[in-house]
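Incident log, structure service

09:12 report received: a user says their structure output differs between two submissions of the same chain.
09:20 pulled the input from the user's history:
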Amino acid sequence: MLDRYLQSIEKPGRYIGLEINAYRKSFEDAGTRFALAFPDVYEIGMSHLGLQLLYHQLNRTESVMADRVYSPWPDFEQMLRSYGQPLRGIESERPLRDFDFLGFSLQYELSYSNILTILDLAPVPLRADERARQDPFVVGGGPCAFNPEPLADFFDFFVLGEAEEVLPEIIAIHREWKRSGVGSREDFLREISRVPGIYVPSFFDISYSADGTISEVVPRFADYTGVLKRLIPDLDACSPIPEMPLVPLIDIVHNRLSLEIARGCTRGCRFCQASFIYRPVRERNPGYVFEAAKRALAASGFDDVALLSFSTGDYCGIQALLGALVRELEPRKVAVSLPSMRVGTLTPELMERIKKIRKTGFTLAPEAGSERLRRIINKEILDEDLLSAAETAFGLGWRVLKLYFMMGLPGETAADRDALVDLCMKVWERGKKSKAAVNVSVSTFVPKAQTPFQWVGQLPREEVSAILEDLKQRLRKPGMKLKWSLAGHSIFEAVFARGDRRLGAALKRAWDLGARFDGWTDHFNENLWYRALADTGLDAAFYAQRERPFDEILPWDHISSGVSREYLRNEYRSALEEQYTPDCRHGGCTGCGVCDHETVSPLIHEERVPELDAAPVENASAPVPASDDAGFLYRVIYSKLDRARFFGQLEMAAAFERAVRRANLPAAYSKGFHPHVKISFGEALPLGMESIIADAYITLAEKVDTAHFRDLLNRHFDGFVRISSVTRLERNPVRGLPTRAVYRVSGLSPFIIRHLLLRWPGCADDVLLKKTKKGEARATLRDILLDMRKDGENSLEMEIYETPLLCFRPMAVLQHLAGERAESLGECLICKTAAYPAADGKGSEDVRGTHCK
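09:34 re-ran on a clean worker, output below:
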């Protein structure tokens, strides 16, 4: 709907929803409509597995549709506001206010300002108490929902824990409420408050003491005094792996097939919120994961599979699963990555298997520099194990190793930071022989709700800055790079992580002052946030740096992850005593309170899975050696029309490669560290330009029928582009010859067409300038514009002389001719319709004379 405005947007592909395997269910036919919102940019939101799992679950449900929306980048927000347009679901293009539920994934405290942007653009009243019956219910879930109090003013309710079983219950209650047509919003909220795992903040009143601490939390209803998280007992049964995962058409942060192999972690790192709120551990069956991976790869065309859990190496079937996947995927040049590997579980055998396809990255997370400090945080990692893993990685060919640390941890001393530096130097020394790089990342400790360190204060800013400066000086070595988090980021993350409802006013004030994308370094304005706190009578140090006594009422005390408060308190005491608490998977129950060992208990798969021992390789086309003349070369002519014009050449290349993989064509691959399907393109069109004669060159390992090749690609492009022909080439085409390119320009007013045609003859000797990588190119208009003629009431055709070294785009020519009227060209559409050798100007077999429709 806003296509004509997207030309000036930085990345229009974020907003147009052409992903492969998207459901695109009918809005009108659905009885219940969800808009799943991620309060960050598309590239981050599309990388989040949790939101995709819910997207697939909802859309598999009869008479339910789920659309998606992501935070608009500031340029798109400004455009929506300037044209008075609402923010819409990217598939249905319906305004967000038209949905029944607007559900936010709450992953990071510094994304909260983006929530208000999405609500305001929906448009939906920001405050829950100002919404009418027809407004959508605003719901939140995710790790930040375990202290949702700073967001209480803006949300109708929250889902605590895992939503897979909660959603059907919400839908059933909502359908009845909607069908009745008489109940109020509070009536609906009262009904769903009876659903386990649902927290309605408006049903609790909070009062404060003179010192600013909470004096009392008063429930409005006697039967609703607290909320316990919801969880599912069996991932395979309750949260199946999507067989047709969403495939983005622009590059995203984690552009790969992500497979959740387990949920929950009982390692018990005392700083880690996830280690407590997602208990107990539940593993998927390795055989199921293997089969699901093959189906999802076939439907997506990804060339990288990531096995996800909080500690993938702890997954009982990891050796057998990884071995089967490597055997299956190696011939297809599909990599397997394990993003979350604990040092103690990184065996040489595992590392050897990973590197067979390609080395996707190697990360070690000791978190603390000394073994003493690791005992405090319950991270059982010995220096010798970490150094052994690093040495093995360098020996197996990894050339970049990443180390993650935290500073400001409870009990940390200068000696611990000395140990951090010493450990980094030892890793760096071991990588010198192979000239490997060591990237060290240091973040500041942030105390989180529902953890043993929820009572601990954060270091003052001055100390954080001093420690960082010291590390910058001491970790200066060739091949070593230090990265760190902004002190302001860590402070305000802590403010909202341990904050109360009064912060809602500060959040609204900061948003009014312009806060957006606060998690992004170049958008975060720390002074703005301090002003917002001051304007609302609040203080950052009160929330972030204050140590809290055990008897203080915490803002989240009426919300439970299932881990008892007494257990968290005992774990804090164990930290002070430098005592380690073992993993309950191996050392017996530690009494955290989550499991009743009847309906809730750990689920692990220690049994052998015979089908993984020698899993046969299915449908794997053997790649040919990648030399210049290897394989069979095919030329593909395709149309890039409508919204496809908003994707750049690199994005088109990725889309073609994935289509070839989905079609299971016998692709030939490039050599090198990261093998790709051998694809090249004739011309890189500028973003926003259409073409009906775009061409790609694809090398296959075997001969295939050209009509079959064309039909397969069309089927697997899902209408994104249209393949018009495929021809086999006996040799590489000659490129770089001068051409006479024909463009059709539509969407012009009759007045501007007359103006352009009248101006052209008098401007023939004008000199056009173009900046290039080597400086500047210039040519007269006479040499560039060979012909221009009217082609209908609102269109004209242009013929332009083009060479690789001298290529002036049609828009540049039109803007020169339009002069002061160039703004009237903003909504025109340019399509390349033909190209032929410029030498004779009479056309050849390459001519495509058909006009764009």
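09:41 both user submissions now match this output. Likely a transient worker issue. Closing.
09:42 reviewer note: Residues 414-431 form the longest helix (18 residues). Residues 506 and 537 are 9 Å apart (CA to CA).
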